[in-house]
What we know:
Order of helices and strands: HHEHHEEHH
Shape: globular
Strand order of the largest sheet: 1-3-2
CATH superfamily of the domain at 20-123: Winged helix-like DNA-binding domain superfamily/Winged helix DNA-binding domain
Number of strands: 3
Strand content: 5-15%
Radius of gyration: 18 Å
Oligomer: single chain
Number of helices: 6
Low-confidence stretches: none
Structural class: mainly alpha
Amino acid sequence: MTSDPSRADRTADLLLRTGARLTRMTSDVLSAQEVALTYRQYRILTRVHEAGASSIVELAGFASLTMPTLSESVSVLVRRGLVSRRANPDDRRHAFIELTPVGTTALQAAGAALRSHALTIIRDFGDDELDLLLSSLETVFARVTADIATDAPSDTD
Length: 157
């Protein structure tokens, strides 16, 4: 920990404010896409893409959402044609959730738009600034990920 409490306080405050602004930017970018998405929908599509065909139970754990929230969100995505439910031959009570071609295209477009916006933020950074930022963000990301891993599912994102 730093020996300057005011520096630590300012850094913590800026970290939280930056997170809030990045969340706002992400929501704005996602809602402006041809296939508009909420942040939660984007996360679910990303998780299905990363994990492949998955049950609601698997996705709920992977996405850190409660079962009712995830089930409702998946139903909306099914109605919009972004994911589909496929019967599980081993357990008829649980279906597999898969991306549809429309869902894959929407996810790719949203990811490209988000990446483009992120790159505009750092476009004028030199190599040293990028190296420092990358190292710092990797550390912050690892610590936040570790904190989240110990928490219960959340419906706040």
